[in-house]
Amino acid sequence: MFEQKNEFITTAESILFVSTLFIWLYIKQYFDTVDTWWWAFPVMTFVLFLRSFIGRRVDLSFGWNDDEEEQELDQKQR
Predict the structure, then answer these.
(1) Residue 49 and which of 18, 41, 58, 66 are 20 to 30 A apart at CA?
(2) For the chain, how many structural domains are there in total?
(3) Residue 15 within a domain
């Protein structure tokens, strides 16, 4: 059926990662005394990036084709 491409990083993940870097650079350059709440924005975007990136790796490690292979074996046995 449909074979999933194993991409290293998706477009959404790369946008999250790059935006995190730009937010950190912006805060570092334009805010001399940075309040704790300002650091929450890049931390949240980085956590979203990590959750998506690592979560996709865990899903891929279990194998998407296992169910299809089992169904093919069942059909051959019948």
Answers:
(1) 66
(2) 1
(3) yes
Structure tokens at 14: 């790369």
Question: Is residue 21 domain-resident?
Answer: yes
Smallest CA-to-CA distance from 27 within 15, 37, 16 is with 37
Q: What's this model's pTM, rounded to 2 decimal places? A: 0.62
User: Percentages helix, strand, coil for the chain, rounded to the nearest 5?
Assistant: 75, 0, 25
Residue-range definition of the domain harbouring residue 60:
11-77
pLDDT tens figures, 32-75 = 766 778 888 899 999 999 998 888 877 555 555 555 566 666 66
